[in-house]
Amino acid sequence: IALLEQQVQQLSDRLIALERVADAAQDESDTDTGTSAALSLTTASTVDTPVSSLNPAVTTDNLVKAGLDRELAADIVRRRNEIDMKLLELRDRAAREAYLGTERYVEELDDLREQNIPLRDEIGEDYYDSYLFASGRTNRVRVASVMIGSPAEMAGMLDGDMILSYDNRRMFNWNELQEATSLGERGEYVNVTALRNGELVNLWMPRGPLGVRLGAARVKPQE
After folding, report:
1. What is the mean predicted confidence (pLDDT) over 161-189?
2. pTM to 2 decimals?
3. Distance CA 143, CA 216 (A)
4. What gap in Å lies between CA 83 and CA 112, rounded to an integer?
5. DSSP H or E run through 190
6. 191, 167 in Cβ contact below 8 A?
7. Residue closest to 164 by CA, chosen among 184, 141, 144, 183
8. CATH 2.60.40.10 at 140-217, yes or no
9. CA distances from 2 to 5, 56, 66, 68 (A)
10. Which sign does the torsion angle of CA 112, 114, 118, 122 carry?
């Protein structure tokens, strides 16, 4: 596993240089803002860097710290690293063969990403919560401030509340919460569970913008 992680990092470093060359060539060749601009937007919204500071590598030790059996943790890391390698190899091949950012690249990328099960779904929410904490990452959504006259204020939300779930789905970061508020029928009321001064508070809010400024916190699970 350590060797595979090293190979991922080395290939990632090579891709940085290759993508700079590809980007420069693309800038010279794109003389209109029609089809090529639309394709560029589609690609940018689909592609995630497999290993980065924003998407840190899953490690066996952190999964074990979260409570998983070491053998199971090692198997999860092995399978995820294999997918990471395939993603990196695809980007490397596409850059070398000059089809990075094309429809062909997006299709091949989507085929690979379908094989990659989200870690949260694979290990379950409780283990995922513990994993985030063990990895030193934030795992709670904190309300920094509530806007006057907003749905959140009318529902009784207060500054400092930590939003634990929205529509009965646990929330671990503000991106998830923003996405959740945009789902379903606008105006439909859903349950929002928050932690306030150590106590759970259930609030009912309409789907759509909450009207709060959000922050993040790192909290030890079950505390």
Report:
1. 94
2. 0.67
3. 8
4. 7
5. strand 189-196
6. yes
7. 141
8. no
9. 5, 15, 20, 19
10. negative
CA distance 192 to 161: 11
Q: Give the separation between CA 173 and CA 144, rounded to whole angstroms.
A: 13
The C-alpha angle with vertex 200 and arms to 150 and 121, in degrees rounded to 5, equals 90
Q: How far is CA 88 from CA 2, 49, 51, 59, in A?
A: 17, 8, 9, 18
Using CB atoms within 10 Å of the CB of residue 74, give its burial: 0 to 12 exposed, 13 to 18 middle, 19+ buried: middle
For 7-44, the pLDDT digits (tens) are 555 555 555 454 444 444 444 444 343 433 333 333 33
Q: Do 81 and 99 form a contact (C-beta atoms < 8 A)?
A: no
What pLDDT, on the 0 to 100 scale, is given for residue 116? Answer: 84
C-alpha dist (Å) from residue 143 to 163, 195, 220: 7, 10, 18
Range 15-18, long-range pairs (CB < 8 A, 24+ positions): 15/88, 15/91, 15/92, 15/95, 18/91, 18/92, 18/95, 18/96
Hey, what are 158's tokens? 């207060």
Tell me how long the chain is. Answer: 223
Residues linked to residue 190 through DSSP beta bridges, in sequence order: 205
Start-end of CATH 2.30.42.10 domains in the chain: 140-217
Structure tokens at 165: 């779930």
152, 208 in Cβ contact below 8 A? no
